[in-house]
Design goal:
This protein has about 180 residues and is mainly alpha-helical. It is built from 5 helices and no strands. Helix 1 packs antiparallel against helix 3.
């Protein structure tokens, strides 16, 4: 037992525990990947609904996608099925960011696949939100008439969905890169 000499005053400092980091818990570290996958699967479900003949909210999409979904041809069904499979694949790739101890090749593939998905989603969704917003705000005047109702749906839901989905993938990738393999 180590006892300090009687002449030395004993000073006790209360040590404050270190503040928890954002990634201290696995849940805090991994929620962006789960949220991105959820948005991917939900988007796939909506597309599947329309591919199988559902029409709820289809009129809010407008243009070629709406026309194609209403055709009910083998080609439109095949195209819709491919889009559903791509969205499901994007969700599965996002879930791959939840994994532990990935090998170097798998880790690199996950980062490239998710980075590509995020770039596509952010560019496509961001450009459409920006341009549609500029049209709705009267900053840009198109040569032909536009359906302002559809533009609002794209600005506030459909294209914004892609932006949020892409941003969540970016955050998930950053957190995945921060973890040790």
């Amino acid at each position: 037992m180590n006892v300090p000499p009687a002449s030395t005053p004993m000073v006790t400092r209360r040590q404050r525990p270190p503040a928890p980091s954002v990634s201290a818990s696995p849940l805090a570290d991994r929620w962006p990947a789960r949220a991105a996958a959820t948005l991917a699967f939900a988007s796939a479900a909506v597309t599947l609904f329309w591919t199988l003949g559902g029409t709820l909210l289809l009129d809010t999409v407008g243009g070629a996608p709406e026309d194609l979904a209403r055709q009910r041809t083998l080609g439109s069904f095949a195209f819709g099925t491919v889009v559903v499979l791509v969205k499901v694949s994007a969700g599965l790739v996002a879930l791959g960011l939840l994994g532990h101890g990935a090998g170097r090749l798998r880790r690199r593939w996950l980062l490239i696949a998710n980075g590509t998905a995020a770039a596509i989603l952010l560019l496509w969704g961001g450009a459409n939100v920006l341009l549609s917003g500029l049209v709705l705000g009267g900053v840009i005047t198109p040569d032909s008439a536009v359906d302002e109702r559809n533009l609002r749906w794209h600005v506030y839901l459909w294209d914004l969905w892609f932006v949020v989905w892409g941003a969540l993938i970016v955050v998930a990738v950053m957190r995945y890169r921060g973890r040790r393999s």
